[in-house]
Amino acid sequence: MVGLYQAGPSTDLHGDRHARILAPPETACPDMTDDVDQDGSYDERPSKSARKRQSDDLQALGEALIELSESELDALPLPEQLRDAVVLARRITAHGGLYRQKQYIGKLMRKIDAEPIREALDAKRTRERVEATRFHRIEQWRDRLLREGSEAVAALAAELPHIDSKAIGKLTERARKEQEQSSQKVTPAGRELFRVLRDALSNTAP
């Protein structure tokens, strides 16, 4: 290491004149051993933790397939070997056997391009959220019609001008009378009102 020389000589206790060598300040040197290969080049592969996260994600994605119905599985772009493994997993009841089958499914997931499967499942979940929101909206309108009667019918007609407000008004009155005379929470006319509202709201934004 090359030292730094102080300007001018100095004298020690024995009278010797010599140049004082000052050590350069130490600088922190980052540990690059994890990022550099043996040949000195940088390793651009994902880190161990990133690979673990990716593996866990694919494992969870594969296990989500087990919860799907036959028709839903048929709608997904699954390789035959993976589909067979998923179908078999749904038949296994023993905890240990199911665990091993899930691990096998995860292994298969890591061997394929899982993006088409992920996209299909994401689209399915989006449709389910939209349907749940629409169902909740229908329930809200039905309950409001049963609670407020003609005022709610007028509000519904203002929001949905294409509906037959006169028919819905008559059905609402019938459902309200049935509700007054019955201990049931939902009466036959109430269920019919729900179906009419479902049809009326089917082509509207949730």
Describe it for me?
InterPro entries: DarP, DarP_sf. The protein has helices at residues 48-64, 70-74, 80-91, 95-109, 115-148, 150-159, 165-181, 188-201, and strands at residues 4-5, 10-11, 17-18, 21-22. It has 8 helices and 4 strands, in the order E-E-E-E-H-H-H-H-H-H-H-H. Helices cover 60% and strands 4% of the residues. The radius of gyration is 36 Å and the shape is elongated. The protein is mainly α. Among the domains are: 50-113, Diphtheria Toxin Repressor, domain 2 (Orthogonal Bundle), CATH 1.10.60; 129-201, Orthogonal Bundle (Diphtheria Toxin Repressor, domain 2), CATH 1.10.60.30. Residues 1-36 have low confidence and may be disordered. The strands form 2 sheets. It has a two-stranded antiparallel sheet with strand order 1-4. A two-stranded antiparallel sheet has the order 2-3. Helix 5 (115-148) packs across helix 8 (188-201) and helix 7 (165-181) runs antiparallel to helix 8.
Number of helices, counting only DSSP H or I runs of 4 residues or more:
8
CATH class of the domain at 129-201, please? Mainly Alpha
By CATH, the superfamily of the domain at 129-201 comes out as PSPTO4464-like domains
In order across it, which strands form the biggest sheet? 1-4
Which range does the strand content fall in?
Answer: under 5%
Low-confidence stretches: 1-36
Shape: elongated
Quaternary: single chain
Give the CA-CA distance, first to last residue.
Answer: 73 Å
CATH architecture of the domain at 129-201: Orthogonal Bundle
Family: Belongs to the DarP family.
Protein name: Dual-action ribosomal maturation protein DarP
GO cellular component, one term: cytosol
GO biological process, one term: assembly of large subunit precursor of preribosome
